[in-house]
Write a structure and sequence with these properties.
Number of strands: 2
Strand order of the largest sheet: 1-2
Largest sheet: 2 strands, antiparallel
Distance between the termini: 22 Å
Low-confidence stretches: none
Strand content: under 5%
Helix content: over 70%
Radius of gyration: 21 Å
Shape: globular
Structural class: mainly alpha
Mean pLDDT: 88
Amino acid sequence: MDSLGVFASVLPEIILTVSGLALLMAAAFSGDRIAGLVSWLSVAALVVAGLALAHPAVHAGGEIFDGLYRADAFSAFAKAMIFGAAAVSIVVAPRFFERQGGLRGEYPVLIVFSSIGMAMMVSATDLLTLYVGLELQSLAAYVLASFMRRDVRSAEAGLKYFVLGALASGILLYGMSLLYGFAGSTSFAGIAQAMGGEMSTGLMFGLVFVLAGLAFKISAVPFHMWTPDVYEGAPTPVTAFFASAPKVAALALTTRVAISAFGPGGIAWQQIVIFLALASIVLGAVAAINQSNIKRLLAYSSINNVGFALIGLAAGTAEGVAALMSYLFIYIVMTAGSFVCVLQMKDKDGNPVETIASLSGLSQTRPGLAAAFAIFMFSLAGIPPLFGFWAKFLVFDAAVGAGMTALAAIGIAASVIGAYYYLRVVKTIYFDPPAEGYAAERSMVDYGIIVVCAAVIVFGYLLNPALDQASAAAAASLF
């Protein structure tokens, strides 16, 4: 491929890099007075980068940079979800930060740079590219978690995320060094070739450590310990970001590593993924039952949903990967809608309220917001005919098709446990005596996002032909 084709293949990353650097300089020299403009320009950059995904070189460019990076349909689909979730996280932030002295220009810039790292992650075909992308995303995320410097909870969240993230990064690096030492290559193709023969003990340990490091990034059990505290302590727009875009990037990266690098290892990595899936589903469901904070509940919900998504990966088939990608799309919509609803929870003085008890009788004071909450909670619980049911059906069907009927059966049984705490929120909203009402909001942007997400959840089956085609193309590019 000529130089022009190479640069065309990384066009989204180039757009975001140039935009991020320009906006960083603008924010540095002009201060927070242009934070609003920087936010909208960041959203515009993400939209333009998303449109660039339609370029043939971006979604079908193949391997470039001597095999360090791959532009294919899988990465393009993942990037589209990442850029969309990142844009939503920027758009909903200004009104939240009004009470904390206003939005700072660094916030949207950090999300743009984090998006560049995530774009590199999903296109990585070498351990070196994987690590660079992962760290670029993580370094921005550490700052975002502690963005409200005068808030003790935010500072604590940032510190916990940084310390545990550094530990996970060390585990991942150790696994990568073992893979390189015993496979003799850092490329996924080289590792797959080594896995095709008799698997040595060193390769096995390398595989385990790498999957452990990636499990931290997707907050899968038993590497989930940071998630509830960070989700609760971080500013709500940041929590919405953490629950969506980085989750998609990490799951897509884990999928590419498992299929492209560890594929010939077969049962070795599948056993680990099955354990991560079942443990995440069960713990995410059980631990959420007694939560009184809505953000902590959604943190355990994200752990639970990661478990369901991993069932698709555990199948190890093209159908399983396609189901996982469809699941991620639906999960992004449910999560974005849920967190924008949480952003509407403010007392009369405009201070954020996070207790589930404050939702009591919401159907009488804010019927529209109550209906949106109910739609998202029912969908997260996987109750038909909402789109969340279809997401779970796809991964269970893929597991059965791969001969993993027992895995699907356990997942279905565990989903009943998870339905309890979602239904408890709906019960609080519709059947408990009304609590003090929330402050009236006048944000057409927030309302628009809620309406669009709710419409997708209710009428999403109309999108099935396009979604199935995109997911199948993404999965086919890995096999």
